[in-house]
Amino acid sequence: MTKSYPSNRVVILDAPGEIPLPTAEFVYNFFLPDEYKNENPLGSTPNKLQNDLKTYTNTSQRQQLKRKIQRFVPRYNNLSWKAIAIGNRPDWIGSISITDNLNKVIDEETLSSDFFTSIMFKDNGADGKINYAISKAINTILTQLNVNTTNMSQMDMIRLLNSATSENIDGTFLTEAFMNLEKNGVKYTGNNTKENIVNSIIDELRNVKTKAFFNNKRIATLLKSSVQQPENIFGDETYASLGMAKIVQENTIAARPNSVIDSVDYQLNLPNYISYNRNIPNGTYKINYQVIGYIIEKKEYPVDGQPITKDPIVIDNPNVSECVDYNVKYGAQYGYTVKSVFLLELPTYNITDNSIEFGTSKYIVASQRSPEVYIQCKEYMPPPPPADFQIIWDYQRDLPMLTWNIPVNSQRDVKYFQIFKRRGINEPYQLLKMYDFNDSQTPLTIADMSENFVDQNLVENLRFANGTALPKKYYYDEEFKREDTAIYAVACIDAHGYSSNYSVQFKITFDKFANKIITESISKEGAPKAYPNFFIQKDAFVDSIRTSGTKKMTVYFNPEYLKVTSKGSPPTDLQLLKTDINSKYVFQMINIDLETEQTIDIRLVDTRNETDKPGPNNISNNSTISVNNNIKPLSFDNVSYLGVPK
């Protein structure tokens, strides 16, 4: 009878309490010159604030702490997650410090024996692969049907693919995977112009993870075979682990030849215990466990390099579900994962020379990592327009002098001023001068700004040799002459390249007789740069029409809508067309040569029946106009009315 050795043990640890996808928000409070370089802007100053935030669970206390953080911390990432309350020993909470025993934490994902290694796979390029597959499917269908795609939009292509696929494939999934608006540069912003994160089906696919155990004697061989399979969705992730897998396989084969049997191969040894309680009768103890806190793992993702692992953030309180990470650089991208941490008590035994001693041991165990949340440390809030803008006349230089102040801005990041001029409201603004007083250690170039078309000859650098800078808050227009008319406005740009809207717009002329400047405000502040006339108050219709040699007037009644209703339930008719007996439209005819006038009253009479009335944009032939000529000093022959009977 053939005999074989028993297989080596496989150690699998399944800790409950895996954290769902956490949320992360970058908060930008105020500017510092070294914000692009310094990852620890305040040193140890805010440590107490952060430690208190880790400890306090009272909402009022946490809000007070956050207000302090906004005063002292220039920027930070705010993380939040769902707190986990699992365990049968709540009295253990606070009894063991995770921070002091960080090197003894046993990780569920990496726990293994000398013979097996666990690897967690996550397809970081799932969206690109799905997009490629859908694109190929669309191209195949278009080729088979010989469809002309000249006038087809992306949505038209998706509809065509959706009609050709199974009902089990959701059309929304096809749309999101194919169009991928985020990669095409589309960003969704809220009312405060901050970028919002839009979650989609593709985001959920990126977070799918698969855990596998590999025999250390075969791990490199198995991973290499997997990499060579072109259909393997984890090919690029597997390739990254191949080098280390070769080392593990070679060392295991050298240390553990197949011809040697050792009792260690069949025993579980966990050396990193926190405490050991001896002399417990065998078989009389149950497993105890309790969540005691969290470990937040942090990585930085440089644009042109490998991810950099940062020091973890430890929370020694399971009731806390929020954390502030102030050790961030502006412009950098970070990734965070959260693990719940358990204090686990197991029955164990200790083999001595003469006997076996039974007892219990406590271990600190970390659950699987949550899905990784990524955050770009950038703010998208443009500054307000410059304040206190005014124009005075400098009689000594015989020129208009424009003055303004830095706007009230809690971010303190205004670093550029722009001065604009135009001749009239029908002309666009032209940039006269741009003041650069950006004292950042990593100053922007013109290409980095939202307005990357500024002529360098118009930029005046106000920085000193030591890197500091002072703003200039005035400008003389040396091209203005006393007989000219001009409109001026100013704007500012922050340290990150975002521009404000226009300030108050002033139109100026010079009164030679009074020997003073005449200033007229033609627009309030806030007009977008693309629409400088946005707030200019101007009639949309001309109130008077000038004509001569005319003896006939034609009146048209052709509204776009006969009925306009307001929102609500039920909708309300706004009565924009007045048809009651007291409403009328008046034409006043004035002969300026003879200084005489004639008024013509026009009333609308609605003679439609009730069934005709609801139809929008339905001009009925039953609508009539009645005319009342009050005074007739002038002769107007043949007043006719088109579209309706007299």
Task: Summarize the topology.
Layout: E1 23-28, H1 47-55, H2 59-72, E2 75-80, E3 106-107, E4 116-122, H3 126-145, H4 154-164, H5 171-179, E5 188-189, E6 195-196, H6 201-206, E7 209-215, H7 219-227, H8 235-255, E8 275-278, E9 288-300, E10 308-309, E11 313-315, E12 322-325, E13 333-351, E14 356-366, E15 373-376, E16 387-394, E17 399-405, E18 414-422, E19 430-436, E20 459-461, E21 474-476, E22 486-494, E23 505-511, E24 516-523, E25 554-556, E26 585-591, E27 596-605, E28 624-629, E29 640-642
Any overview of this molecule?
- With 646 residues, the protein is an alpha+beta fold.
- The chain folds into 4 domains: 23-107 and 276-376, no CATH class; 126-184; 387-523, Immunoglobulin-like (Sandwich), CATH 2.60.40; 542-646, no CATH class.
- 15% of the residues lie in helices and 28% in strands.
- The strands form 8 sheets. Strands 3, 8, 9, 10, 11, 13, 14 and 15 form an 8-stranded mixed beta sheet that branches.
- Strand 5 (188-189) and strand 6 (195-196) form a beta hairpin.
- The longest helix is centred in the middle third of the chain and has 21 residues, at 235-255.
- The radius of gyration is 38 Å and the shape is elongated.
- The chain starts with 22 loop residues before the first strand and ends with a strand.
- The relative contact order is 0.11.
- The model is unreliable at 191-198 and 614-646 (pLDDT under 50).
